[in-house]
C-alpha cells in the first residue's frame, strides 16, 4: 500500500513550467533519493507533496491519517525556550498522559473504581515510550553532535547550523509515517552523519531525501528519482543509479542513432527513385517515413549542462612535497590545537584531513600555506612547488569584481573573448559574466573559484570543502578531474564519496587528544580499521543486548581488566533490573482489588524502570569509550 500517490503533477509560475505531468507513488518503508540539477524544482515538488504549495495541475493522494514531517533547508526556530524544551515539546501528549496518571494515583486509595482506567492508561503510557522519552532525547541530541552543555541553551543563542540540527532532532523524535529531508547532512560532521545513517536504517517509516551527499545516499536510499525536470526512476542506491543512468543513456543514444541512420537511408532511396521506375515504391516509403516521424520520432537523449574542467600542473614538483617535525598548530592567544606526528607527503599522493567541525582542519591548511605560523616545530615544503588554494568561504574572490574581471585578475594574459570562453566551460554564459561576485549564489561562487584555480597551473592543491554548494553533476565532474590530476592534493572535506575515490592516506584530527593520527590507506580501508574485531559467538548463546566482553579478557592490561569487571557488574545489574521489571509486569497484569497495592507496585515499577535506564546509559557510555 502506498503512503502517498501523485498523479499528473505540474507546477508553473506564469508562462514558465517548472515541471509537468509527474506521476509516482511512495510505498511504506521506502527510502527515496531525489536528485537533479539546482533549480530543477526538487524543493517545490516536496512542498506540494506536503500541502505547503498548490500544484498547477494534477493531484496528490495521501493515505488516511498519514503523519508527515519535514526538514527544510532553511530552518526558523524562534521560540524563547531551550534546546531541551524544544525536543520535549514533541512529547506533549505523552506528558499530559503522565500528569493524568499521577493525578489518578492520588485518588486510587479513595476511589478504587479508577483502577481499570488507570491500568489501561499506564499500559498506553508504557507502549508509547513514557519511560524512555528522556533517554531518546539525550541520545538523539548527542548523536547529532550536541554537547551536554548545549541542552539548556536557549534556541536564540544557537547558530544557524545548530538550529537546523535542533529541527532535525525534533523531527526524528516525532511520530511520523513519512518524512521529507531537504539536505539533512548540511551542518553535520561525519560522526553525526554516520549516526543519522544508522538511525534511518532502523527507522520504520518512509523517507524522501534531497541530498548532494553521495555517500549518504549510497548508504540510505533504495531508489533514486532524478528530476530532469521529468522524473526518471532508478532502483538501488546512488552508485547503482550512476551505472543505470549511463546504461539508459547509451541505449537511448543507440536507438536514436539507429533511427537517424534509417531515416537517412530511406530519404536517400526516396530522392533517387521518386522520379524513376520505382516511383510508387518511393512514394509508399515516403508516406511510411512521414508517419513514423510523426508518431515515433526519437530525439537525442538529454544531457545536463556540465562543467568542462581540467586541472593541469604547469611543472613537476620534487618527489618530497611536504615534511614536518614536531609541528604544533594553533594560535598564539589560545591553547595549541594539536601536534602533528613527523610526516612526509610525496608527489602524486592525496591526503584527506578528517575531524569534527571546529577541530582546526582549515587552520592546518593555512599553516601549510604560511598564513598562520606554527607554534612549535618545523615545516618544510619541497622544491618546485606551485600551490593552489581553494578556500571554503572563497576569501580569495574579490566581492566587488564582476565575474569576468575576477578571471582577468588571475590570468591577465587572457583577452576578454578568451576569458568569456573559459568561463563558459564553468557554465557562465551570456550576461552571467557581468554579474558581481557578491551577487552570486554559493554554487556559482564555487564554480568561479574552480575556474580561477584551474588557471593557476598548481602542482600542489589545498582544497577546503571543494564540493560545498555544487550540484551532483558538478561534483561528479570535479571528482573525475581530480582523479586525473598529476599533482599532489591535500583535501579537507565532508564528502566521503570524494574522499573514498581520491585519498591515499587519512589525517584524522583528534581534538580531545590534541593530535593528528595518520592512516596509510584509502578511506574504505580506514573505515574498516575503525570497526571492532569480530568475536565468534557460540551458536547456543543468545542475548537481548550486545554480548558482554568477557570473551575478550585475554591479553588485557590491568586497567582493561578493571574496566571489564566494571562492565560485567553493570551488565549483571541490568539483567537484575530486567528480571524485576518482568516480575512486576506479571503482578500488575493479575487482578488486584487493593488500590494501595496497585499504587505501590506502579511506583516500584517506575523506580526500577528509571534505574534500568540509568544503567543502560552508563553501559552505552562505557561502550563508546572502549
Question: Key terms for this structure?
Answer:
626 residues; alpha/beta; 6-stranded mixed sheet; 19 strands
What is the element layout, followed by pairings?
Blueprint: E1 2-13, E2 16-27, E3 31-35, H1 42-50, E4 57-62, E5 68-71, H2 83-88, H3 92-105, H4 115-127, H5 133-143, H6 160-173, E6 178-182, H7 190-202, E7 206-210, H8 214-220, E8 223-227, E9 231-235, H9 238-273, H10 279-296, E10 320-330, E11 336-339, E12 344-346, E13 350-354, H11 361-369, E14 376-381, E15 387-390, H12 403-410, H13 416-424, H14 442-454, E16 460-464, H15 472-484, E17 488-492, H16 496-502, E18 505-510, E19 515-520, H17 523-530, H18 558-589, H19 595-625
Parallel strand pairs: 3-7, 3-8, 5-6, 6-7, 13-17, 13-18, 15-16, 16-17
Antiparallel strand pairs: 1-2, 1-4, 8-9, 10-11, 10-12, 10-14, 18-19
Helix pairs in contact: 3-4, 5-6, 9-10, 18-19
> Percent helix among the residues?
40-55%
> What do the pLDDT scores average to?
86
Name the poorly predicted regions: 537-558
Structural class computed from helices and strand pairing: alpha/beta
Biggest sheet features: 6 strands, mixed
The counted number of beta strands is 19
Side-by-side strand order of the widest sheet: 5-6-7-3-8-9
- Number of helical segments with 4 or more residues: 19
Percentage beta strand: 15-25%
**Radius of gyration, whole Å:** 31 Å
**How many angstroms does the end-to-end distance come to?**
44 Å
Q: So what's the overall shape?
A: globular
Amino acid at each position: 500500500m502506498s503512503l502517498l500517490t501523485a498523479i499528473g503533477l505540474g507546477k508553473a509560475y506564469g508562462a514558465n513550467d517548472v515541471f509537468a505531468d509527474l506521476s509516482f507513488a511512495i510505498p511504506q518503508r521506502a527510502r527515496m533519493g531525489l536528485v537533479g540539477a539546482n533549480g530543477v524544482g526538487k524543493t517545490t515538488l516536496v512542498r506540494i507533496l506536503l500541502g505547503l504549495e498548490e500544484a498547477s495541475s494534477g493531484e496528490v493522494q495521501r493515505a488516511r491519517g498519514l503523519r508527515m514531517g519535514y526538514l527544510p533547508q532553511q530552518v526558523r526556530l524562534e521560540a524563547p525556550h531551550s534546546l531541551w524544551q524544544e525536543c520535549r515539546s514533541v512529547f506533549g501528549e505523552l506528558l499530559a498522559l503522565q500528569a493524568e496518571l499521577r493525578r489518578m494515583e492520588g485518588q486510587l486509595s479513595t476511589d478504587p473504581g479508577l483502577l481499570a482506567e488507570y491500568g489501561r492508561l499506564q499500559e498506553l503510557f508504557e507502549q508509547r515510550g513514557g519511560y524512555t522519552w528522556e533517554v531518546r532525547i539525550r541520545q538523539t541530541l548527542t548523536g547529532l553532535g550536541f554537547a551536554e552543555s548545549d541542552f539548556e541553551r536557549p534556541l536564540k543563542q544557537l547558530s544557524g547550523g545548530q538550529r537546523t540540527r535542533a529541527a532535525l532532532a525534533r523531527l526524528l523524535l516525532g511520530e511520523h509515517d513519512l518524512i521529507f529531508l531537504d539536505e539533512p547532512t548540511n551542518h553535520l560532521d561525519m560522526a553525526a552523519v554516520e549516526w543519522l545513517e544508522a538511525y534511518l536504517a532502523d527507522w520504520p517509516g518512509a523517507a524522501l531525501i534531497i541530498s548532494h551527499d553521495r555517500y549518504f545516499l549510497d548508504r540510505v536510499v533504495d531508489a533514486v528519482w532524478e528530476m530532469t525536470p521529468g522524473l526518471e526512476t532508478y532502483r538501488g542506491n546512488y552508485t547503482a543509479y550512476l551505472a543505470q543512468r549511463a546504461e539508459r543513456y547509451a541505449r537511448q543514444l543507440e536507438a536514436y542513432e539507429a533511427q537517424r541512420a534509417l531515416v537517412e537511408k530511406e530519404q536517400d532511396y526516396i530522392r533517387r527513385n521518386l522520379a524513376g521506375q520505382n516511383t510508387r515504391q518511393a512514394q509508399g516509403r515516403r508516406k511510411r517515413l512521414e508517419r513514423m516521424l510523426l508518431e515515433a520520432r526519437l530525439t537525442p537523449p538529454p544531457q545536463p549542462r556540465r562543467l568542462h574542467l581540467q586541472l593541469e600542473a604547469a611543472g613537476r614538483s620534487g618527489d618530497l612535497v611536504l615534511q614536518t617535525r614536531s609541528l604544533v598548530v594553533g594560535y598564539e592567544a589560545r591553547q595549541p590545537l594539536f601536534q602533528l606526528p613527523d610526516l612526509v607527503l610525496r608527489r602524486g599522493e592525496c591526503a584527506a584531513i578528517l575531524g569534527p567541525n571546529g577541530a582546526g582542519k582549515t587552520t592546518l591548511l593555512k599553516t601549510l600555506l604560511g598564513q598562520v605560523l606554527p607554534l612549535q616545530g618545523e615545516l618544510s615544503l619541497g622544491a618546485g612547488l606551485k600551490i593552489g588554494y581553494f578556500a571554503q568561504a572563497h576569501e580569495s574572490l574579490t566581492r566587488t569584481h564582476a565575474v569576468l574581471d575576477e578571471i582577468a585578475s588571475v590570468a591577465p594574459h587572457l583577452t576578454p573573448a578568451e576569458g568569456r570562453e573559459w568561463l563558459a566551460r564553468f557554465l557562465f554564459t551570456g550576461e552571467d559574466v557581468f554579474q558581481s561576485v557578491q551577487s552570486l549564489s554559493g554554487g556559482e561562487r564555487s564554480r568561479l573559484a574552480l575556474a580561477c584555480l584551474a588557471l593557476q597551473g598548481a602542482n600542489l592543491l589545498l582544497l577546503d570543502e571543494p564540493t560545498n554548494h555544487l550540484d551532483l553533476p558538478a561534483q561528479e565532474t570535479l571528482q573525475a578531474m581530480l582523479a586525473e590530476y598529476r599533482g599532489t592534493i591535500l583535501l579537507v572535506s565532508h564528502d566521503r564519496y570524494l574522499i573514498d575515490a581520491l585519498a591515499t592516506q587519512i589525517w584524522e584530527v583528534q581534538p580531545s587528544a590534541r593530535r593528528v593520527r595518520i592512516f596509510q590507506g584509502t578511506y574504505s580501508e580506514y573505515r574498516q580499521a575503525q570497526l571492532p574485531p569480530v568475536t565468534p559467538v557460540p551458536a547456543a548463546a543468545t542475548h537481548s543486548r550486545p554480548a558482554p566482553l568477557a570473551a575478550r579478557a585475554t591479553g588485557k592490561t590491568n586497567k582493561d581488566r578493571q574496566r571489564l569487571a566494571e562492565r560485567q557488574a553493570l551488565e549483571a545489574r541490568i539483567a537484575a533490573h530486567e528480571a524485576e521489571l518482568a516480575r512486576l509486569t506479571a503482578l500488575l497484569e493479575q487482578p488486584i482489588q487493593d488500590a494501595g497495592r496497585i499504587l505501590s507496585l506502579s511506583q516500584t515499577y517506575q523506580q526500577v524502570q528509571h534505574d534500568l535506564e540509568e544503567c543502560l546509559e552508563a553501559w552505552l557510555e562505557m561502550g563508546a569509550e572502549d
